[in-house]
């Protein structure tokens, strides 16, 4: 199997993390840096992800976002959805991409790219990140949990936490970004990550 398709598909998720999510999040946390003290006490909502069966819990609903991808990538995608919301010192985003059957995919490549390509965001001086494997949905779906500290030329460092998972042509990504000096950031992310589930089929 050629390494070129693997790199290409992995680069799609990396593109989203670096070019869309991080730039938008950086602008937001500069304006609203503190995580709300009430964020872990309030009732959260169940957030679906487009037309998929995947859902997770967040403090507030996410809104659909327009995402522009290079033409050479769009021809590999059957459908996609990107959602995000910013409030209470947090930026949370989620993405699903269904690829054309036969398109090679690489979860590890996507996880690595989502971390490494953060260096492409203007003003970033260093990114220190890592990943570890995990299984979701009672061991049926493989994935990677990712974590990265983003050093900036100006302002305090940021912390990105996320998961990349999927089977075959289906790839999902859920990310959270906040200031690295926010002590409750880890607990907020753990609540989001541990809530990822498959919605029950409605009869």
Task: Summarize the structure in words.
This protein has 203 residues and is of the alpha+beta class. The protein has one domain (3-198): Protein Transport Mog1p, Chain A, CATH 3.40.1000.10. It is 26% helix and 39% strand. It contains 4 helices and 10 strands. The protein has a 7-stranded antiparallel beta sheet with strand order 3-4-5-9-8-7-6, with helices on both faces. Strand 4 and strand 5 (90-99) form a beta hairpin. Helix 1 packs across helix 3 (107-116). It is globular and about 45 Å long. The model is unreliable at 1-7 (pLDDT under 50).
Secondary structure blueprint with pairings:
Blueprint: H1 3-31, E1 45-48, E2 54-58, E3 63-64, H2 71-74, E4 77-87, E5 90-99, H3 107-116, E6 124-136, E7 141-152, E8 158-167, E9 170-179, H4 185-194, E10 197-198
Antiparallel strand pairs: 1-2, 2-10, 3-4, 4-5, 5-9, 6-7, 7-8, 8-9
Helix pairs in contact: 1-3
């Amino acid at each position: 199997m050629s390494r070129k398709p693997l790199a290409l598909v992995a680069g799609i998720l990396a593109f989203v993390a670096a070019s869309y999510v991080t730039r938008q999040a950086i602008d937001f946390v500069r304006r609203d840096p503190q995580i709300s003290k009430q964020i872990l006490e309030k009732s959260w909502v169940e957030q679906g992800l487009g037309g998929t069966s995947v859902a997770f819990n967040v403090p507030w609903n996410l809104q659909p976002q327009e995402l522009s991808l290079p033409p050479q990538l769009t021809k590999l995608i059957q459908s996609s959805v990107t959602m995000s919301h910013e409030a209470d010192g947090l930026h949370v985003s989620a993405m699903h991409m269904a690829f054309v059957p036969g398109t090679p995919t690489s979860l590890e490549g996507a996880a690595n790219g989502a971390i490494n390509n953060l260096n492409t965001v203007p003003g970033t001086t260093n990114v220190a990140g890592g990943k570890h494997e995990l299984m979701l949905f009672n061991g049926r779906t493989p994935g990677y949990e990712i974590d990265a500290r983003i050093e900036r030329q100006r302002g305090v460092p940021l912390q990105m936490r996320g998961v990349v998972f999927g089977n075959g042509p289906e790839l999902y990504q859920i990310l959270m970004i906040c200031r690295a000096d926010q002590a409750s950031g880890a607990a907020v992310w753990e609540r989001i990550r541990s809530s990822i589930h498959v919605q029950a089929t409605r009869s």
